[in-house]
Amino acid sequence: MADDGWTKDPFIFSDISNDGCGYTVRQSGLFTFTSNNPELFEVNGIGRMRPLASGKGTLTVSYHGLELCTVSVTTSVPEVEVTPTPSPEPTVTEKPEPTPTKTPENTATPTPKPTATPTPKPTAVPTQKPAANAPKNEIVDGYYYQSNGQKYTKKNSFVQIDGKWYWADSKAKVSICNGAKGNYYFKNGVMQKNVVIKKYYYQKNGKKYTKKNTLVKIGSKYYWADSKSRVKLCNGAKKNYYFVKGVMQKNKVVKGYYYQKNGKKYSGRRQRKRWFRLP
Prior knowledge:
Number of helices: 0
Largest sheet: 3 strands, antiparallel
Number of strands: 25
Helix content: under 10%
Structural class: mainly beta
Radius of gyration: 54 Å
Mean pLDDT: 83
Strand order of the largest sheet: 3-6-7
């Protein structure tokens, strides 16, 4: 063992043919030495080992990634005797007796009464009222001031002013409604109701009719709402009914088919013959 704690000699390959020395490693990096028990010993690039603890382990030698051999290693670390240092006996220090303090007789120390902390009252914030000369029920610089003088602040919403409809945008600025807006239609602020505009039917409440592929009665005439809810006046056969310029034909024979009193086409196929009384 060298003074630095490592073995003196590097790793030596033996010649098994004559039990002699085959090759002594002198150059680091040619072979790779791996300690399979790093808690027992460590090994450097030429095979010198330094024991860390006593025990038995193994060492693997490789050449350019090819494992050549694995050898057994027995390590021994001399134990160091520790001489216990005697602990000094504790020194007992006598506590001095307290000096009694004379208290005057019949002298009572008054207990201080707790002082009540007053709870602060909330400060009322007065509601800001509009000035006396503030505009009322007027549109000023694109903003609508209501009848109480407060500015209208709702955004992206409808607001009715003097019987007409306006649209308040993302900044609450208002402009009179014209044309389609949402599911409604306006002409100079007036909501259109129970009328067909640009193939769409706006109902009695002003809302656009959105049902599809169905019959809808507008006034006294029937229309057909297609797959995009666009309406068209019914003419000819539609489903089990027959129409002439939007008027449903009832209790009539049209093109060889009988349309009953409710307007529905008669479809009694099982009866070969049946008499009908027509007006």
